[in-house]
Amino acid sequence: MKKIAYLIIAATILGSCSEDFLNVEPLTQKTSDNFPQTADDAKQMMAGIYTTMNNEQRNVDQSYLFVCEVASDEKLGGGGVNDIKAQSYEAMMYSDPEMLSHTWEVTYEGIHRANFALENMDLLSDIVVSPELKNQYKGEALFLRAFFFYRLATLFGNVPLKITTEEANLPAASTEEIYGQITLDLKTAIEILPQVPYSSTEEGRVTVWAAQALMARVWLFYTGFYQETSLPGVTKAEVTSWLGECISASGHYLVDDYHELWPYTNSLTINDYPYMTDYMEQTGKELLYAADNGAVNPETVFALKFSNFANWDIRRGYSNTFQLFFALRGLQSLGNTFPFAGGWGQGNSIPKGIVDQWMIDEPDDIRLWASVIDIESELPNYAKGQWDFVMESNYWGKKYNGVTAKAPDGSIKNDYSVIMYGNQDNNQLSHGDDLVFIRFADVLLMMSELTEDASYMNEVRGRVDLDPVAYSLENIQKERHHELAFEGLRWNDMRRWGADYTKTALETQMGTPVYNFGNPDVFNGLNSKGYSARYDETKGFFPIPQRQIDLSNGMLEQVPGFGNDALYPGFSN
């Protein structure tokens, strides 16, 4: 967990303070008249784009990844009885007209900052910022703009395509226009970003390898979900060629053991965690978290970094608050949940059917219990039904649950970073592990799917000692499900594999055993129409904030399926 302390820079937000549609309020006194002028200004300008991703983390239950996790078949939208946003994503309904305002606003804020950087970078002389560094910065800005638009397009569908800082009310662009711009931005980024091994780049920064990987992800979603033969302006051969370069020249590689990807194998926790000590004894392996003590994780292609100076103001986003929201509910004694932290318990309950099917598909797959906490066997002292917990299962995600550690005096700290990095010991602000958006295993699996070549998939399977399999769509679907479980990718994978696949997967959640208020119950959905009907109505998109529609003066229309009858009525047994 190497820490990159991105500055809170709002200098690139240059819109007026009025409430014009898609307008962004300035947060500092810096304007285009006096910024940027120096090399340090250029650094701050770039840091400001990245910072918007941290800003999103202030409200995790309104964030893109949270929606994708809960909406998929991998998680139930559980939590407190009044955590209606999570329940609304589960039901594909809306909790209130502004349910996703935060994500909309901070994502367009990031786009605005990227636009500003692209418009102003060349105003700096080559003496102040070298041409090579300008290309690096412009490539990063292009990638991030594409990354942000991809998120908006997969969450809301057709959205305004704002690619300048000029104030304007814009209608929703067509699907082809949006993906054409994403493709152009990524293609240009690939052309101008330096092709150097990831280990020679600053951790947390965009690389050419990340741009190549994102292009493949965009290709697969666009051609799959929209049933198109190609992305606008890019051929499949180009996409596979770029992905091949990422595989052969980036320097990224799979870590030796799957467990090493996840923070519970840090050096301060691993030897106190019976699941891991048993695993190491059985296999004869001595494992250590790949990012322990500041080491760079070779499998991370692109990730959001955090720091140890999070606070309750805007800086809350400098802690990984997914590790708070996904943590076990109730903030009960850390001894009851060790080595996992306590928190809000939102959106991290795994339906029993996911576990059962995984055991049928791959009974020898170590990734199952590397990814899933079996509460009854691993945490026998954990008390179910904390506070007003509903839709609680016996299975819980491990990957983004906060991880605790024991101090020399025997006390348990809220996060291992308290001891390792001097982080504050606070149950809400201590967590700082990377939020990984693209890792190398995903790159290999995308290459296998694009080329229908099983060798890339079997490299991923070989890491966990599974036998090779022939290439088939069914096999790649299962492999992605198991390798990338609970990492926010499943929802868009489901959707791009077709409505029938998606609806079948969603319906498997019906009848799963749960606890409501600590009492055994059965989950039968949150929407009287059912999963399949709601997916047919919405296609898996979520509602544009009503305020944005109102401000657009008729230029924006609400996403289909989100009329008055889609208002979530609240939880009831």
Low-confidence stretches: 1-29
In total, the number of strands is 12
Structural class: mainly alpha
Strand fraction band?
Answer: 5-15%
List the total number of helices: 22
The chain-level mean pLDDT equals 91
Gyration radius (Cα, Å) is 23 Å
The gross shape turns out to be globular
**N- to C-terminal distance:** 41 Å
Strand order of the largest sheet: 1-6
Main sheet summary: 2 strands, antiparallel
Helical content stands at 40-55%
Commentary on this structure:
By secondary structure, the chain is mostly helical. It has helices at about 40-55, 65-70, 85-90, 100-120, 130-155, 175-190, 210-225, 235-250, 275-285, 320-325, 335, 350-360, 365-370, 375-380, 415-420, 440-450, 455-465, 475-485, 490-495, 500-505, 530-540, 545-550; strands at about 80, 300-305, 330, 340-345, 370-375, 390, 395, 405, 410-415, 435-440, 510-515, 520-525. Strands 1-6 form a two-stranded antiparallel sheet. A two-stranded antiparallel sheet has the order 2-10. Helix 2 crosses helix 3 (about 85-90) and helix 19 (about 490-495) crosses helix 20 (about 500-505). The two termini are about 40 Å apart.
